Structures are given as C-alpha cells and as structure tokens.
C-alpha cells in the first residue's frame, strides 16, 4: 500500500525541528570495533607503543641509526621513521604486527650477539619477520621499553588472531590477509 511505510523515529531538537533517528548497523559495528580497540589501548604496553619510542636500529657493530617507532592508530601497523626517499625504502618504513613471526628479547640475533658486552642485553630486541624481509635488530633506551614493545606486539597479534574474518575486514578495510601474507591495497 502506498504511504504505509514505517517512519523513522523522530524527536524534537533544541531548535524545535524534527530530526530522524534511523538505526545505522554500520555505525553500531564501528562502535563495537572501536570499543574492542579501546580495550586493547588500555593495555600499558600498547599505550607506550602508541606514544612512540626512539630506538637504535642495528645492522652491524658499526652501522647503527636512531629511529622512531610508533604504533599507528589502526592498532596493527608499526611506523618506523626514516629519511630515505626511494619508493622501496618508503614501503619498508612500516610493518604489520601480523607480518611478525616472533619477537626475541636480548642479544639473540647474530648481529646483536657480536655486540654482547658493549650493549646491555636487556635493552636489545629482535623483530623476526615472516618471509624474505630482514629481521629488525633494535637497541632500546631501557629494559622496560624493550619489554613494552615485545609484549605489545604479542598482545596485538593475539588480538587480531582472535578476531573473526568479518571483524578483520570491518576493522582493516585497506588490508586483505591471505595465509601469512599481508597485501596492502593502497
């Protein structure tokens, strides 16, 4: 029948005019997913990662460069500040926590083992990636900072692994995961 559609609930606003209060399921999903991320943001390790940290990237006992690492607002991407300008280098400036195979605390990599005695082992950290990407050896400013980053990456990996595929697609629309590979669509 014509004209027999249910109307959205309306209410008077402060100006005396009506405004529609239609229920938006996508908005509700956004609120749900944001609440889940906020719960993870309550984690002290993740908070520290969101603030960012200045660390030393180590490639050899001679090659050491200061870098700032910071967890981006999406909760899965870690940005690594660099002054390189090539397109390949720019792609290497960030990584997803899901690209990480494991995080090793202490002087566990070949490069960091060469430095035992010259750096405090408790401040060292190695991020090992899945696939062909080189590991990232880091010297943190403190033992606590190294522990925050190691635990934080593990926390975020666990959070993403516990999400359903629908939640992942809703939360991270610019990323598609296929097995162990992460392909960015931007």
From TrEMBL:
Residues 1-20 are annotated as: Disordered. InterPro entries: PH-like_dom_sf, PI-PLC_fam. This is phosphoinositide phospholipase C. Its EC number is 3.1.4.11. It catalyses: a 1,2-diacyl-sn-glycero-3-phospho-(1D-myo-inositol-4,5-bisphosphate) + H2O = 1D-myo-inositol 1,4,5-trisphosphate + a 1,2-diacyl-sn-glycerol + H(+). It comes from Perca fluviatilis. It comes from the Eukaryota. One of its GO terms (molecular function) is metal ion binding. It is an enzyme of class 3 (hydrolase). GO terms for cellular component: plasma membrane. Keywords: Calcium, Hydrolase, Lipid degradation, Lipid metabolism, Metal-binding, Repeat, Transducer. Residues 10-20 have a biased composition (Polar residues). One of its GO terms (biological process) is lipid catabolic process. Its cofactor is Ca(2+).
